[in-house]
């Protein structure tokens, strides 16, 4: 019995024994070390697997399969730079193995290089056209890169083979706006009625709600979303007190700092676009990255991870009250250096400036200012009612703690209120350092607001910023379809379609003194 056969069957004990026998018989051959590494990785022992993979590569440094799996493990350990190098070396070597090609594509996608990921995904599908996981990865990459017709074709091919495939139903629903005469509502209703897996059910309900809203059936869309979110909130057992404690800890920690201290790194290449999700952060990223001097790096985890690493806390959460407190003892220059090293792996070659548009970086504004005092920060603001509705109606990464609030309207309103309070806190502590940039103002006077944005970021005028919708760079957010159209007011006041269902949210904001008009 070979180690590969045992691995394929999931018999890790047999696979490990066979791999050890290979190493004893042929210690100069990389295959035994590679299969030992894969056995350890399958057992969840990534730290043990990586040295074995390095032994395999020492024997055969240009093996594309070894390089691809090495890149995958490095990504899991958040060693993005090394992962990028290994993935690109694997791509250069070439491979006829579908799994290797798909793995390379997945690593590139995790690194935000969706354009380059298309080629290995296409290769994987060409070699194993019936593998639905490979085809889904290609479909998603096509969607992110604006290949809408190709994405639609791949999603439909998946659904022809697996009519209940929830990921593909959802991907197809958000790919473009549906029309009354052409939509998938009936098919989605059937798939939803048959779904049993909770993750599948939440995706299908979100897809159905999105298409119902597209075709003007607002009441049914609201009811479908409410059911989806209520069920999912119960599953994850979210309590707003979890996020409130983080806000409290951040405000308490920074209340004790000297705002005039200058101890960070003078690098001025970073532009941070922050704010509540679904408020226009992707739009502003596209505007800025249309400038000749600016590139987009997408939503980097570089700053949260730099703060976490500098804090040295052992909790599994990237941000929690303990980390918020402990990070204050770290040298701001160290945080800045850790950030720049992580961000460098995502910067396109030759870019003078770059945009990091992780919305949740609003939690880290204080660390950004202390560690990178010359960085520019833009915070997107949008009508709070539209913000709540847009968060509630969009399915974020279901495993991410960042968005756990979004499955309940009032939780989202509470989160917005704390976001609003924290941004006011940053403004008092560091006046003028963050540009509060209004989505509605941008829509109503695009050129004036774009000039104000560029001026704050220290950029000269570039008319290409007005034609952001012609920017062909990949978009891996729910805004992918919107930002490929010219600016319009469709999203302003959308909450009013659901005014009755959002009455409690409106009353909450009024009680908090937060203007909603």
TrEMBL record:
TPR repeat boundaries on the chain: 98-131
UniProt keywords, alphabetically: TPR repeat, Transferase
InterPro entries the UniProt entry points to: P-loop_NTPase, TPR-like_helical_dom_sf, TPR_rpt, TPST-like
Database matches in SUPFAM superfamilies: P-loop containing nucleoside triphosphate hydrolases (SSF52540), TPR-like (SSF48452)
Ubl conjugation among keywords: no
Protein name per its UniProtKB record: Sulfotransferase
């Amino acid at each position: 019995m070979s180690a590969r056969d045992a691995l394929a069957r999931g018999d890790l004990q047999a696979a490990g024994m066979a791999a050890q026998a290979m190493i004893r018989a042929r210690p100069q051959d990389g295959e035994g070390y590679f299969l030992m590494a894969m056995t350890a990785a399958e057992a969840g022992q990534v730290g043990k697997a990586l040295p074995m993979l390095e032994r395999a590569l020492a024997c055969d440094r240009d093996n594309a399969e070894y390089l691809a799996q090495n890149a995958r493990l490095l990504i899991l350990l958040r060693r993005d730079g090394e992962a990028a190098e290994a993935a690109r070396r694997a791509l250069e070597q070439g491979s006829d193995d579908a799994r290797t090609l798909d793995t390379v594509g997945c690593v590139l996608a995790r690194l935000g290089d969706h354009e380059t990921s298309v080629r290995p995904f296409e290769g994987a599908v060409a070699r194993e056209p019936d593998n639905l996981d490979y085809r889904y990865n290609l479909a998603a990459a096509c969607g992110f890169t604006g290949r809408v017709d190709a994405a639609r074709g791949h999603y439909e091919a998946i659904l022809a083979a697996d009519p209940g495939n929830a990921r593909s139903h959802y991907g197809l629903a958000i790919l473009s706006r549906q029309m009354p005469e052409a939509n998938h509502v009936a098919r989605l209703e059937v798939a939803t009625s048959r779904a049993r897996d909770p993750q599948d059910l939440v995706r299908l309900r979100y897809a159905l709600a999105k298409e119902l809203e597209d075709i003007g059936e607002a009441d049914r869309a609201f009811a479908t979303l409410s059911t989806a979110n209520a069920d999912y909130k119960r599953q994850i057992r979210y309590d707003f007190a979890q996020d409130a404690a983080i806000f409290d800890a951040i405000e308490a920690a920074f209340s004790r700092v000297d705002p005039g201290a200058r101890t960070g790194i003078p690098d001025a290449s970073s532009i941070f676009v922050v704010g509540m999700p679904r408020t226009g952060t992707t739009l502003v990223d596209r505007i800025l990255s249309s400038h000749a001097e600016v590139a987009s790096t997408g939503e980097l985890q570089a700053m949260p991870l730099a703060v976490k690493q500098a804090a040295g806390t052992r909790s599994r959460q990237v941000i929690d009250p303990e980390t918020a407190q402990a990070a204050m003892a770290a040298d701001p220059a160290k945080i800045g250096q850790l950030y720049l090293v992580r961000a460098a792996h995502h910067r396109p070659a030759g870019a003078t400036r770059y945009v990091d548009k992780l919305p949740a970086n609003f939690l880290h504004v204080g660390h950004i200012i202390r560690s990178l005092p010359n960085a520019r920060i833009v915070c997107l603001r949008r009508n709070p009612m539209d913000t709540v509705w847009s968060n509630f109606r969009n399915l974020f990464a279901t495993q991410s703690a960042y968005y756990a609030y979004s499955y309940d309207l009032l939780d989202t309103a509470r989160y917005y209120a704390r976001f609003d309070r924290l941004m006011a806190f940053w403004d008092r502590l560091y006046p003028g350092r963050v540009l509060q940039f209004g989505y509605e103002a941008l829509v109503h006077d695009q050129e004036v607001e774009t000039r104000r944005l560029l001026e704050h970021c220290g950029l000269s005028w570039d008319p290409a910023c007005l034609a952001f919708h012609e920017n062909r760079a990949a978009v891996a957010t729910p805004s992918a379809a919107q930002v490929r159209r010219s600016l319009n007011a469709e999203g302003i006041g959308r909450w009013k379609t659901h005014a009755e269902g959002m009455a409690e949210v409106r009353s909450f904001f009024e009680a908090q003194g937060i203007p909603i008009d």
